[in-house]
Amino acid sequence: MSHPVLNCAGKLLDLQKPKIMGILNTTPDSFSDGGNSYQQGNLDLDLALQRAGQMQKDGASIIDVGGESTRPGAAKVSAQEEMDRVVPVVERIAKELDVIISVDSSSAALMKEAAAVGAGLINDVRALKREGAAEMAAELKLPVCLMHMQGQPDSMQDKPQYDNVLSEVKAFLSARIDACVAAGVDRAQIILDPGFGFGKTLEHNVELLRQMSAFKAMGHPVLAGLSRKSMLQGLLGRSVGQRLAGSLGVAMLALQQGAAILRVHDVAASRDILELYWQIDAGHMQ
Ligand code: 7PM
Q1: Is 229 a known active-site residue?
Q2: Is residue 111 over pLDDT 60?
Q3: Is the pLDDT of residue 119 over 60?
Q4: Between 20 and 30 A from 49 (CA), which of 55, 91, 173, 252?
Q5: Where are the domains of the chain?
Q6: Are 109 and 79 within 8 A, CB to CB?
Q7: Is 70's pLDDT higher than 60?
Q8: Which protein residues touch ligand 1 with a CB less than 6 Å away?
Q9: Could you report how far apart the first and last alpha carbons of the chain are, in Å?
């Protein structure tokens, strides 16, 4: 596992050097119409493309397109609504940019539609547990990111509880790897993610970050999703708009423990710390 290369629908993702995944939300509150309608016009697609292009210029290798708000306490989004938001954005970016597009979804139907218009990676906060998702990922032959979550987005932060958070998250991911491989997913195409903030208290998140190298030791590339997360509220008292420095600090800690992909909002700044890590702390070992 010293040199994993994932095949994202023909585009190779070489993880010898860590890579940046830029976050592109298609939820209405993150778009120009301010949430009046989820129907996207050309202006919305233009804006999504422009944001994706900027992130690529800033150093993102992957653009993560999501349409379901998984924010703690968030309302559910209908499958059709999610499809209507995500698929046109994936299609537009795939047409115009030479970049790997990941689709942040748990729905097998959406994975299929997104792959048909150019998605190259599946990022599922439910670790392909939904009906038909693992089989679909296997059929599409795309890399998958399996994330740990305790509970469901609408209630997961109510009372997260673990006897041993590290061993329970590892056991969950290990079971999901086995289930996905049994469904036909190529083991070499599986990325793991401890799921910071998904059914975890501040203490749980800190423990997982401290022990992040344990996930790499499972033999898969590891994705770290720490950008602007609420643990920075807990540790630093920073509101969401004030979390850049904290996000970069925890991203560096994740890199030092072997994280292969950083999922971030602030691509340019994250690329700087990735370069520092690579030139100072990792490059000399290669
Ligand atoms: C509000 C709060 C909106 C939190 C969105 C979020 C991850 C992810 C998300 C992650 C992977 C965010 C989250 N987080 N996928 N999707 N790993 N693989 O902060 O940590 O972006 S949504």
Answers
A1: yes
A2: yes
A3: yes
A4: 252
A5: 18-66+82-104+158-174+190-281
A6: yes
A7: yes
A8: 23, 69-71, 104, 123, 125, 145, 147, 193, 195-196, 223, 225, 229, 263
A9: 13
